[in-house]
Automatic annotation (TrEMBL):
Matching Gene3D superfamilies: 3.40.50.2300
Organism of provenance: Nonomuraea solani
Annotated Response regulatory domain residues: 8-122
Annotated PANTHER family: TWO-COMPONENT RESPONSE REGULATOR
Transmembrane segments annotated in the record for this chain: none
4-aspartylphosphate found at: 58
Lineage: Bacteria, Bacillati, Actinomycetota, Actinomycetes, Streptosporangiales
Swiss-Prot/TrEMBL keywords: DNA-binding, Phosphoprotein
The protein's name: DNA-binding response regulator, NarL/FixJ family, contains REC and HTH domains
Length: 213
């Protein structure tokens, strides 16, 4: 396997036993490697030798930092974040995804499930624990699609009135990639029973779901 095929992971968690267990377990996984560890987000950003492909972020850290701000801080650094937590509510998962996290996994899963979610996030997917997703769909906001950070960024730029090319530049992607993201967004809204065919439709969905706030 080429070095470029390996998914690098950094973990922000103050549970040293969990991190050590993850490190030992990954020794037998060919395509995922733990390359960084820290007890806080601030510590990770200072000590990490190079940005990992995926950051595993515990929801509740001993330093009392705000989980939403932790996610936002990492996202501003263009990091792909998978939140790992003992909290199982769909509402909390929604807050993390809205803040820019690419996934939310509860800690009652085994390490094999964690690695599977890491792979999903590394491939630019949105990875959420099945039981959390079911609770999410059952709440009153269940018709609101889950968008990846990249889909969200392109949607906001495009719906604000930018051309596709300008929206792509704003989101830091190629126009063809931006077009694919928009098609995914439209498909997700269609499946949620809220079709969005035009730029005006997309702008309306942004307002309805408060995505620009």
């Amino acid at each position: 396997m080429k070095e470029t095929d390996v998914i690098t992971v950094s973990a922000v968690d103050d549970d040293r036993m969990l991190i050590d267990g993850l490190d030992a377990w990954l020794a037998g996984v060919s395509d995922v490697r733990l390359t960084g560890r820290a007890a806080t987000v601030a510590e990770l950003l200072v000590t990490e030798r190079s940005p990992a492909d995926v950051v595993l972020l515990d929801l509740l850290l001993a330093d009392g930092s705000d989980p939403v701000e932790n996610v936002r801080t990492l996202v501003r650094q263009r990091r792909r974040v998978l939140v790992v937590s003992v909290v199982t509510t769909g509402d909390m998962a929604r807050k993390m995804i809205d803040a820019g996290a690419c996934g939310y996994l509860t800690k009652d899963h085994d390490l094999a499930a964690l690695v599977a979610k890491v792979r999903e996030v590394a491939e630019e997917g949105v990875a959420i624990s099945p039981e959390v997703a079911l609770g999410w769909l059952a709440d009153r906001d269940g018709d609101r699609p889950v968008l990846s950070p990249q889909e969200h960024a392109v949607l906001l730029a495009y719906a604000s009135g930018m051309t596709l090319t300008a929206a792509a530049r704003s989101a830091g992607v190629r126009p063809g990639t931006a077009k694919n993201y928009l098609e995914r967004v439209k498909d997700k809204y269609r499946k949620a029973g809220r079709p969005a065919y035009t730029k005006l439709d997309l702008a309306a969905r942004v307002r309805e779901d408060g995505l620009a706030t």
